[in-house]
Amino acid sequence: MKSAIRRIYTQMKMKPYEHPAALYPYHEWNLSEDRYDEENNQRSESVFALGNGYIGMRGNFEEGYHGTRGTSVIGNYLNGFYDSEPIVYPEGSYGNPTRNQAMLNVTDAKIIELTVEGHAFHLNSGQIHDYKRELDMKKGILHRLVEWESPAGHRVRIRIRRMVSLQHKHLAAIDYELTALNFEGEITLTSIMNGEVAKQEATDDPRLGGGNAEPNLLLEDARHEEHFIWMKQRTRHTQFTLLTAMSHTIQSVSDAQISETLDGERISAGFTLSMRNGETISFTKYISYHTSKDCAEDELLSGAAEVLRMAEQRGFEELASEQQAFLHKFWNRVDIEIGGDPALQQGIRFNAYQLLQSAGRDGVTNIGAKGLTGEGYEGHYFWDTEMYILPFFTYTQPEVSKALLEFRYATLGKARERAQVMSQKGALYPWRTIDGEENSAYFPAGTAQAHINADIAYGIKQYVQATGDYDFLVTKGAEILFETSRFWADMGHFNPAKGGSFCIDAVTGPDEYTAIVNNNAYTNLMVQDQLCYSYETARLLQEQYPHHYERLQQEIGLTEREISVWLDAANKMFVPFDEKLGIYAQDDTFLSKQKWDFDNTPADKYPLLLNFHPLVIYRHQVLKQADLVMALFLLGEWFTLEDKVRNYNYYEPLTTHDSSLSPCIHSIISAEIGDLEGAYSYFDRTVRMDLEDINRNAKDGLHMAAMAGSWMSIVNGFGGMRLYDGVLCFSPALPRQWESYRFKILNRGQLVDVFVDGQGAVYTLLEGDGLEIKHRDHPLLLSPQAPVRVPFVK
Ligand code: BGC
């Protein structure tokens, strides 16, 4: 049968494997454009976004835009900083969340306006003689170079470097260098902070989210201090405080005349000076953000003063060296090399870089579906974290994974409350959230996705097995596992109608094109795995950490009886299977529905969710994304290769990949069942999803799960890596399009380098004192710095 992805490519009149003309030229370590493209500017603003896991800044120009309406979405975000508004349901039902949370677009402090002899610089005026923008992923700096001639003929060269500091959570900096090329005269640089943030217009696209037009940030105060300017605002509903501050340094031959204005929510510092022909002035702006979520309200100002003072003392160049040093360490652990494919090489590095920029690292924030690059999905955190993003960090920077899991621990109380609202024991994690409360207003593709509980449990298990961090398991992870297992034991039931098997009814699996079903196979399999792991963890605590076991007995009333029920439920888990087809049924009724008529669905009707009522979709065998196929990957050792082939061949042609989370999982399973062409095609689509704007919505923010999924496609797909019984197993293959690839994996503090080319695989232990791994079922003992070569058998 023709594969779904090839069919869609054909419908879209695109051939697989051919990269469309590059939107951004292929460079291994940077992303650049040499022309300002107003029509696609919003997309470029996402792609050139900077962040440090706390501050996110879209790639907006300092001078703003004067083009057609909708040219730009000015965006500045702080991870975990939100406002909350009532959700209006024309027809409500009990237990629906009553208030939403939306990541706030905060005060824009990156504005720098320039006038040259009275003419304002912007890209829609005068003449542009040279333009280049470049994101340097080794240095962590966004560069812009513009040579501009004003309508009066004065020519200047402007070189702007922007960074959001990876070392200093609250700091961003812009260095603005201006050279007069053919005149002597007066220029003014005005550095502005604008607290009046325009909201995006509401659309019908459920992936964007709505909201009303009222401003969410209300001005409380704004002042000039001796060295800096600040503005204090409060969120309308959540009553959080935000303090944005900026300070400046300027180096020029003549002294600047300085003027400062406080004009409502727009405050500025102006620097007017006369320039000589050929002179270069250097202007640096430091920006800090602090909120009452990070520190006490009366410490906001001193926090800002301290950060700005530190930044000024170091200066832009020193901050830039620190940034480079940070990234040097990052790439040493994380880099993936692809030999012979510059497009994909660029794509995979860009994805790793953006993941670093967006993941919260403080244990109280997480990573939004679009990171800190745009407002799609309102900045919410989903299962994307544990199932897609966590593996990337677990095997490269486990400390980030730990922080992401700590967020779940920090919000366990809210998950307990949610389970109560749902008339259930234990804890139910929210499908989408910022501070731990459920935020999904459409429960069939929201709260019904209770599999999030099992996904979090799986993330904990993988993290502990890969790192050996038992301290996390016993102090935090176990409590999450037990409370979420309690939920399953209470919500599922031993069903006499199914011979006493344990059934889980009225849930939605990962595939959001099929909703509220009984016994979604993915959910039941993942819960089975979770219940076994919870049981094992309880036994581990009893035997090796009795003090923690007793603590949990007292604190959450853990009983011996419930632990045995978990094992019983796991043993008797019902997993729907169709004997005739020899495959797992996605759920109790899926296989009895009509198949979707793909042949008569034109390409412009995708994604289906924007073109058909949910019920029309629910009535058919059609998938938005990997569901059972995802379980084939996650619980790989439970299935034979033949099982995988049969199930994949059934579900793949029914899958639209309307969710960006889907192609990477299909790439992994294609590779496992030996279809390298299919694997490459799906990988190609995942790895450059945003750089080619494949889903045509990169403007709303980048697809974090797909980005992390592209890492999994190489490591777990082509590299065939699995962690079975705590042992790293590899089964590498080389797609014909590549000369070689290389990646690194951190396992319990030991760092392994895996290199694959046409001859075979080479495993090198870069850090650590000895590690046993498996290459295609054969055990290999790796000793430090002694490469082990395993040739491919022809
Ligand atoms: C997908 C979900 C995902 C969400 C956020 C939806 O389109 O169906 O699985 O969690 O996007 O990325």
TrEMBL record:
InterPro entries assigned: 6-hairpin_glycosidase_sf (IPR008928), 6hp_glycosidase-like_sf (IPR012341), Gal_mutarotase_sf_dom (IPR011013), GH65_N (IPR037018), Glyco_hydro_65_C (IPR005194), Glyco_hydro_65_M (IPR005195), Glyco_hydro_65_N (IPR005196), Malt_Pase/Glycosyl_Hdrlase (IPR017045)
Gene3D superfamilies named among the record's database cross-references: 1.50.10.10, Glycoside hydrolase, family 65, N-terminal domain, Maltose phosphorylase, domain 3
Organism name: Paenibacillus anaericanus
A UniProt-annotated Pfam family: Glyco_hydro_65N
Family statement drawn from the similarity comment of this UniProt entry: Belongs to the glycosyl hydrolase 65 family.
PANTHER family given in the database record: GLYCOSYL HYDROLASE-RELATED, PROTEIN-GLUCOSYLGALACTOSYLHYDROXYLYSINE GLUCOSIDASE
Keyword terms, alphabetized: Glycosyltransferase, Hydrolase, Transferase
Any one GO BP annotation for this protein: carbohydrate metabolic process
Protein's UniProt name: Glycoside hydrolase family 65 protein
Gene Ontology molecular functions: carbohydrate binding; glycosyltransferase activity; hydrolase activity, hydrolyzing O-glycosyl compounds
